[in-house]
């Protein structure tokens, strides 16, 4: 049974996107992963040209104005390319929604068309060296000075940090004591004096992703670049982190499905002592166990996507999905390495990249410990 | 618990002092990134007698037992996963010459290796054969000697090797009579080709290669031990090798755990040291239990080996337990470090990759379970 109400139009879109990724992205991944460690801006523009960015932005702002299932398709298909450098899901379904939901008409008119076309690449800057799980303890400041706001502070682990042209920055008004009421969100353009990028961070995986540190030093922006109400930043973050976590669950599910498919095919073709590996009972059971987990994840996730699209309160289920599916994806990738044996120590074995990439899923967008904390709270524990 | 003797404690102290002076994490990180063997560090380790510490003094070994070799490996790998493993494994294979070789072979081949003047590599594994199976590589009788034909893969340290140890099927008769033999092959022999296999998940300091023998001529003095005893020698080799790798694994586990403990003692989130949270304490407790259990199994196996009582089962249990403890410890260390854990700079991601790679070598978990199950259940009538 199909839980998600995909139409022919959705399926056509998926085929078109898949063909695009096969032609223009997949052949380049090895080079991005091992040499450049960044996805060229040209690919973002090509994604925009083809209508693969910002599916939810309405036509009034240059977008296709399509439902969230189109976003799900983009996230899944990029997940199945077995690389995470092209962080279009972060741009389209995590950062741009801040502008779409909380921006005023002027902000939307100014920024959204570029986001849709791929001219403008976005990032969101919450995490700081000293403020990870404890987001409210951030120390970056935003002080109003006439019709400008002055930003100071450091952010880290920022996805798209090197490519980003427009950054949604969370910072505190030091005059407000309650940390939950002190945070506001600001739109910062990359060329603004006082804004600089730090190191392009080297990671276990996501080798084609330009994760970076960002610095703000007396960075003066127009006061009109504040997003939404002053002091409502923490609430906006909490609200939008829901979809961010759902996006992570979709990526994790897509990567789990990719790994299982790859491993099944590979082990069927791997002949050891004259016998395909899949003729061994232990290999069969392992693949069946993994396939069972993948199906359970898919069913839970698709139901959650339907509820999310219907606007239901899915805080508990989203936390559960992010936690369980991210761990399942990595656990299964690790298990595939074991089944493949010593050849799985070579980077040319695709499951190695999946193993390295899926490890971060249980950390970012709120660690799985935070997911359990949130679920526990909303379960009344 | 085995009580360590004064001499054994001295080995631990010497290893710790050496690593404190010679290992630094930036060198390790860089060497691991570009795949460079730390020649200087290795030469000084050899000068201290760390290479082949369990092999006879008459051939430049340390004259100690496998328990001492395990203590050395454990300590070095605790101090740094990558440098520790590289130093421990650069002389890998010498044990086969020491255990199975003739007096002439030992005198001729061991001192250059154990004094760190020369390198060797073990080329046993083949792409389409199980790790304990009769190899597809053949050594056909050819006058006085043999002609070697075949391809080995996942050969660590191949680029530095002056000699290769390999395993080839030496009988030309029916399957039931088929036997294998071990040979020492010069790296410069005509018909031998080394092809780099590229970057690996772990073990990048030693690197990996495919080694092809195309009509390589072997003189009679290149046969190691008795002809036809290759598979029995392989089984004996696996016992020593797996215990030693298990020693490295408990070092990796301890090293990852030490770094996690250090981090949770200092990192503050939600106005508390994260080490104060019950869930953190339980995660660390779980690791402590696993590392200590694994250490017991490994020391026990090494002591049994030195008493001439180790068997395939004991060695496989040690490697399975220790390998899984190392993977779990590094995995948890990453999670407790949050975003930092995923960064190259914080080293625990490197421990995780090294641990996972180690768990796949010389018997992946499935191979080890086969060995243990076979030994425990026995032959069924």
Question: Could you characterize what this model shows?
Answer:
The complex is a heterodimer of chains A (381) and B (381). Chain A is α+β, with helices and mostly antiparallel strands. Chain A folds into 3 domains: 113 residues, Acyl-CoA dehydrogenase/oxidase, N-terminal domain (Butyryl-Coa Dehydrogenase, subunit A, domain 1); 108 residues, Butyryl-CoA Dehydrogenase, subunit A, domain 2; 144 residues, Butyryl-CoA Dehydrogenase, subunit A, domain 3. Chain A contains 11 helices and 10 strands. In chain A, the strands form 3 sheets. Chain A has a 4-stranded mixed sheet. A 4-stranded antiparallel sheet of chain A has the order 2-3-7-6, with no helix packed on it. In chain A, strands 9-10 form a two-stranded antiparallel sheet. Chain B contains 12 helices and 10 strands. In chain B, the strands form 3 sheets. In chain B, strands 1-4-5-8 form a 4-stranded mixed sheet. A 4-stranded antiparallel sheet of chain B has the order 2-3-7-6, with no helix packed on it. Chain B has a two-stranded antiparallel sheet with strand order 9-10. The two termini of chain B are 38 Å apart. The relative contact order of chain B is 0.12.
